[in-house]
Amino acid sequence: MNKKKIIVPLLLLLTIAVYFVVFYKNKNLKYIPENADAVVLIDVKKLTGQYLFSLATHPSEWSRGKGKGKSAGSLKEAGIRIPDFLQIFHIKNTKFSEWYSVLELKDQQKFIAFLKQQKFTDKGNNRFQKDQIFLVINYGYCIAGTSELAFETIQQELLHAAGNTVRNADQFIQNTTGSISFISGQKIQNFSIELSDDEIEIKNNSKLDFLNSFASKLQNENHFLKLELDKENIKNITRFFNKDIADSSQAVSCKAAVELKQVNDTIISYEYDDNFNEIEKKTFQKITQPNYVINIQSNNPEKTWGYFQSKKWINSENQFTAIPFQPNEIIQNNTGVVIKSIREVISSTTNLNENYIFIRNNSLLYSSLKTLSNTEKRIISDIDYVLYGNKSHDYWVKIKAKKGELPLILRW
């Protein structure tokens, strides 16, 4: 038989196989409910390709890569149907911390066995929990979430309802590792998520390099946190916590600087001697406290002060009690109010006249991370800074990691 006649169809079959395995993606998104107001998509194939490329170019990780590959393999063998796009969504009028995802199961029993192996607690009725991850299994599907409050609604709308709306991935993501999208009626605002060797960027415009200029300026300062926000940014950020605070407080801008310091905290307790005399006992412990100054400019300082009083955030000693770190003082002036700690005064800093929030990693934080797992602590300690920036209709978030021998995808 002519070898060429065999080789050509084999190459054709191989090309088709590579296309479907590596490039072809099912863009039908079946698991986003109608009442979702935010969606995160992860391009699983693109992320996997990025991981394999990073692994191939770092031979030192090949031995550990086998272990990781084993874990990935065990995940595939756990009865889960790996999607081309992982769909994570937030439901309107629920807490900002509540996010959900739906996974298809190839083998329900294998998946339950996998959950037990991963030390999930069986709560009965096919419900499982580990830390803040909740799962429910039903009819070959698994709903996962950071809460279980919307499980019944999701099951009715996505799994049991006929004619559920199927969206297309192109509505949300355009050839990036991931995306986060905000939905308001028929309007969808998309932000790309891009992962590089030592940073993660989330943005709605690919040409935002100008933001790096003030990022470099902020890195030269020693503050743990620094921010400058106008009225619109105050409104966008505070609506996650309190929908009316921006309008009710009459605030038109906010500037703040925070530093962290370790201080000695005195704990007073009492003991009794043999004659039942009370004896005062003092012990000392080191705690991390912030020193801060917050300057809120207002259209009407008296109304701002009155709003804070109506919320019972100002006590008789003119301390701002909404900030739990005391002692502090709040002062009304001609342009607004100033809130500052009085333990130590923060030196004045340069204003950049931009909209941003800059958070620098600080080792003093680690003492308060006792409830986190070792993996979570390692990831947080690896972060250098987080920066949010806004100019006009362009938004940008950068999570910058410390320089390391390995890219983030192999570190995390």
Note the topology.
Elements: H1 3-23, E1 28-29, E2 36-43, H2 44-56, H3 62-76, E3 80-81, E4 85-91, E5 100-105, H4 108-117, E6 121-124, E7 127-130, E8 133-138, E9 141-145, H5 151-160, E10 167-168, E11 178-184, E12 187-195, E13 199-203, H6 211-219, E14 225-230, H7 231-238, H8 245-248, E15 251-272, E16 278-298, H9 301-310, E17 328-332, E18 336-341, E19 355-360, H10 374-382, E20 383-391, E21 394-401, H11 408-411
Antiparallel strand pairs: 1-10, 2-4, 2-11, 3-5, 4-5, 5-9, 6-7, 7-8, 8-9, 11-12, 12-13, 13-21, 14-15, 14-19, 15-16, 16-18, 17-18, 19-20, 20-21
Number of DSSP strand runs: 21
Sequence stretches where pLDDT stays below 50 over 5 or more residues: 69-73
- The total tally of domains equals 2
Overall geometric form: globular
Mean pLDDT: 85
Structure characteristics:
21 strands, 19-stranded antiparallel β-sheet, 2 domains, 412 residues, 11 helices
